[in-house]
Design brief:
single chain; 112 residues; 57% strand; globular
Length: 112
């Protein structure tokens, strides 16, 4: 029997330059927005473009590789898994966020 697993693959463009964070314990982290675009014709025959923004997170060597290879506007393929987090805001309300934890990436934009 095949096991079901949490897996996602996205192709999109970076919304900003990546900032690599290094912690005292030696771990590295990156978080950045990735835009994916979808186009379709609506019922009136008009072309509609739908952009979705995703938060990408990577740790360790993967984070360091991404920071060295990717810049704002780069087109990239991200493979990873969806993660959900909850936290308490300053006003005491519960907030939720969704992130993509990157396992692999491939830069699709040629180097200039």
């Amino acid at each position: 029997m095949n096991a079901l697993r949490n897996s996602i693959q996205l192709i999109g463009n970076l919304g900003k330059d990546i900032e690599l964070k290094k912690f005292e314990n030696g771990k590295s982290l990156v978080n950045f927005p990735l835009a994916t675009n979808e186009q379709y014709l609506n019922a009136d025959g008009e072309l509609v473009q739908n952009t979705q923004w995703h938060t990408i997170t990577a740790w360790g060597k993967k984070a360091e590789s991404m920071a060295g290879a990717l810049t704002k506007g780069s087109q990239v393929l991200i493979q990873g898994k969806i993660t959900y987090k909850s936290y308490e805001a300053k006003d005491g309300s519960k907030r939720y966020s969704t992130e993509i934890l990157a396992n692999n990436f491939m830069k699709l934009t040629p180097n200039s």
